[in-house]
Specification:
Shape: globular
Largest sheet: 3 strands, mixed
Strand content: 5-15%
Number of strands: 5
Order of helices and strands: EHHEEEHEH
Structural class: alpha/beta
Helix content: 25-40%
């Protein structure tokens, strides 16, 4: 099983567990989604460093709390590769300063069945998904990706 270790902790967000959790909690503080949103299926979340994108990311994830997803399908930008096709991360887990989030094996099987390539290498140095995961860990501690 693959483990995707953090590559931008300490740059885009805090590398220490307590500091990382506190920053997510600061981004969340004082925000609540409008009551009339209903059960959302997804959202678009920025992926820059948290000093720029954290409060906006927090608002999107807070809006998803009512739906209480068990699995998040994260679509990330590609900054470090010339790849044109999507690539899913293999079975295993993504690691952040807050611990691990498991890859949903059933969802991954469906992705493979749909013909999507599975490649740990394509995710090795890419930050766009990594910066989202601590929000999921704090707000949806039992969720998978």
């Amino acid at each position: 099983m693959e483990r995707r270790e953090p590559v931008v902790a300490g740059m885009f967000y805090e590398a220490a567990e307590q500091d990382c959790r506190r920053h997510v909690e600061r981004c969340i503080a004082g925000h609540s989604p409008p009551d009339d949103l209903g059960d959302l299926l997804g959202g678009v979340v920025p992926h820059a460093g948290w000093s720029f994108s954290g409060p906006t990311a927090a608002k999107v994830f807070l809006a998803l709390r009512k739906s209480a997803p068990e699995t998040f399908v994260l679509l990330g930008a590609v900054h470090r590769s010339f790849r044109q096709e999507p690539a899913a991360f293999p079975e295993g887990a993504w690691v952040t300063p807050l611990g691990e989030v498991a890859v949903d094996a059933e969802a991954l099987a469906a992705v493979r069945e749909a013909g999507i390539d599975v490649s740990a290498e394509e995710h090795a140095d890419e930050h766009s998904i990594e910066v989202q995961i601590p929000f999921i860990q704090v707000l949806f501690p039992d969720a998978r990706i």
